[in-house]
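Anyone up for a design puzzle?
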């Protein structure tokens, strides 16, 4: 009986030792694998964050492109400041087809008017308004016109006694680079235009809408 009890005790102790060894090995293995698993999890989370960041960047790029398009549309309808006012004609005796050159230029926004030639060149395409104010000599018939690229867009005939002044206006769409001027069309005397402190011959233009 003592031998049997002793053998059973040995078997029990052996099983207990195996159980303790298993626990120790399991604990050691878990301590070894958990840091590695945590590293893998961190890498996976970083990859997800990178992927989300790339998506956010792409959305920002789309938004930037959209805003740039809207800005370009705003720029296309923006009306720049284009306006001029000139007076004091260089010559008062004109020939048929001669451009009236105005010497005094108090306003020339956009630099479209050339004081040497008397010609206004449109800087941008759009809707413009032009006006010309002419004072004729006493009993001198004078026909003058606002001319755009060789085409008359406004015209007036004067033959008053004593002298008088008259204004013509024109609304027109002009392309960038086109030329506008005031020209003599027909006259009955050598001196047709009068300029003095009480009479100012002038030429004006303004961009109303850019197209």
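Challenge accepted. My sequence:
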């Amino acid at each position: 009986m003592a031998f049997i009890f002793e053998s059973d005790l040995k078997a029990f102790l052996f099983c207990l030792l195996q159980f303790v060894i298993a626990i120790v090995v399991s604990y050691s293995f878990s301590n070894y694998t958990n840091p590695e698993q945590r590293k893998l999890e961190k890498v996976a989370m970083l990859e997800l964050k990178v992927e989300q960041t790339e998506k956010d960047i792409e959305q920002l790029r789309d938004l930037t492109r959209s805003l740039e398009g809207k800005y370009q549309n705003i720029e296309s309808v923006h009306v720049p400041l284009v306006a001029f006012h000139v007076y004091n004609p260089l010559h008062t005796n004109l020939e048929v087809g001669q451009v009236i050159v105005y010497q005094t230029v108090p306003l020339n926004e956009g630099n479209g008017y050339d004081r040497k030639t008397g010609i206004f060149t449109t800087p941008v395409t759009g809707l413009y308004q032009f006006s010309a104010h002419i004072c004729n000599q006493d009993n001198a018939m004078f026909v003058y016109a606002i001319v755009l690229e060789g085409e008359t867009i406004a015209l007036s005939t004067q033959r008053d006694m004593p002298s008088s002044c008259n204004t013509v206006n024109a609304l027109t769409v002009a392309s960038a680079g086109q030329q506008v001027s005031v020209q003599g069309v027909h006259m009955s005397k050598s001196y047709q235009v009068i300029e003095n402190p009480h009479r100012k011959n002038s030429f004006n233009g303004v961009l109303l809408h850019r197209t």
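A detail worth pointing out: Residues 1-78 form one domain.
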